[in-house]
Design brief:
Layout: E1 6-10, E2 17-21, H1 25-29
Length: 55
């Protein structure tokens, strides 16, 4: 497993060997191929409508 990017270290509390894979959050968070896209749309202004009744 060490050949596949896994690393080992001794647990300072139990003394047992831990196996972990380094994870770079910055590379994961800032990648270009996102799975979702968010859009925000805001509209402002007034709309006045006059209705005239035929007499």
């Amino acid at each position: 497993m060490l050949q596949q990017g896994w690393q080992t270290m001794n647990d300072p509390i139990t003394g047992k060997e831990l196996i972990f894979k380094d994870f770079d959050y910055e590379d994961y968070a800032l990648r270009n191929n996102s799975l979702t896209q968010d859009y925000n749309v805001a509209l402002q202004g007034e709309h006045k409508r006059e209705v005239t009744m035929p007499v």
